[in-house]
């Protein structure tokens, strides 16, 4: 019975649950980013740019007489840059939406113990 109790303690630890939530949220966020890139950015920006340079199908570009598919590498690189830029914009927008916590004002610094003792001494001398 000790094995199952130990497993239960491990499975419901805060770190494990937090990690599970992070993975699920990360997966959902990944779908949002993928949709943003594939459904909005690529049709609006990338497709017209590739048509303008007559390179609509980058993946099919190869060095003649070899098996080197540099087009696939270019497509993956461009995809990475677009996804990274989309993530950057999304995170920047999310950070703007977050409200900054109001900064606590520091209490004005009072006299130190030494200063108070000096004042007490001076008052006693004057009496």
UniProtKB/TrEMBL annotation:
The chain crosses the membrane at residues 70-91. One of its GO terms (cellular component) is plasma membrane. Keywords: Cell membrane, Ion channel, Ion transport, Membrane, Transmembrane, Transmembrane helix, Transport. One of its GO terms (molecular function) is mechanosensitive monoatomic ion channel activity. Signal peptide: none annotated. PROSITE patterns: MSCL. It is found in: Cell membrane. It is a multi-pass membrane protein. The keyword Transmembrane applies. The keyword Ion transport applies. InterPro entries: Mechanosensitive_channel_CS, MS_channel, MSC/AndL, MscL_channel. Homopentamer. Channel that opens in response to stretch forces in the membrane lipid bilayer. May participate in the regulation of osmotic pressure changes within the cell. Belongs to the MscL family. PANTHER family: LARGE-CONDUCTANCE MECHANOSENSITIVE CHANNEL, MECHANOSENSITIVE CHANNEL MSCL. This is Large-conductance mechanosensitive channel. It comes from Chishuiella changwenlii. The lineage of its organism: Bacteria, Pseudomonadati, Bacteroidota, Flavobacteriia, Flavobacteriales. The gene is mscL.
